[in-house]
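To: structure subgroup
Subject: Chain for Friday's discussion

All,

I'm putting the inputs and outputs inline so they're searchable in the archive.
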Amino acid sequence: MNIAFIGMGTMGAPMALNLLKAGHEVTVHNRSREKEAPVVEAGAKPAASPAEAAESAEVVITCVSDTPDVEEIILGETGVIRGAAPGTIVVDMSTVSPSATRRIAERLGEKGIRMLDAPVSGGSEGAQNGTLSIMVGGEEADLIKVQPVLEAMGKTITHVGPIGAGQLTKAINQIVVAGTYWGVAEGIAIGLKAGLDMQKVVQAVGGGAAGSWAMINRSGNMIKNSYPLGFKVRLHRKDLDIALDVARELGVTLPVTAYVEQVETGLIARGHGDEDISVIARSIREASGID
């Protein structure tokens, strides 16, 4: 299939590489053009703009940082909407506002362009290994058409409802992630303060009801107090802001989410915004006198 992929960040670049490995023809574009290089070297074609990338594409995938970026890339003066033909399916795999997603889909629909919102979970490891969990909102018929494309990038692909439902589901995902990471960080702090062998503790509790992706994949960061990038804390804070906006609209109270959002805001202000989300453990370690 002929695919345009826009956004060559930590997630987008390995996702595009997996599409190439699956045999798809891929055209790429990134605002910082140098980030296209590794994917172009692997066989992708570069495009000067989102519109140019979309011109010959059956499917256009976007994977960028925030709602304004998606709006500009899809609807801007050099956006996808200027180059895509009627019948093209735009798959936005960013994490953005559900209401903005619905507005974008409406604008695209006026041009005969289809849209799915398909945010992902699984971190940079999932992007590299093609094992992402993909939450899809939109028409089921459109999902069926792009299923082979998504299967090159993800292991779990779930149609969760109409357009915007994917972003709502991702908001729920990030709410759960916030609570899980915070719980793991608190548990690690207790163990460290007590002088336990935390590798053994993680092995013991990770095999039971406390087991989680965060426990298995990020407890080591929290124990070592070192947070190499997997998913930037500043991006997770952005995601929590989206979740809290949705909660306010629906009249739902999210006290843990609101607290973690404030912790992440403080960490970003102190210069930790580009570290992995597991850096929230730093706050507990410092408050507990571990560091």
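Points worth raising on Friday:
The two ends are 52 Å apart (CA to CA).
The beta strands are 2-6, 25-29, 45-46, 59-62, 89-92, 114-117, 120-121, 132-137, 154-161.

D.
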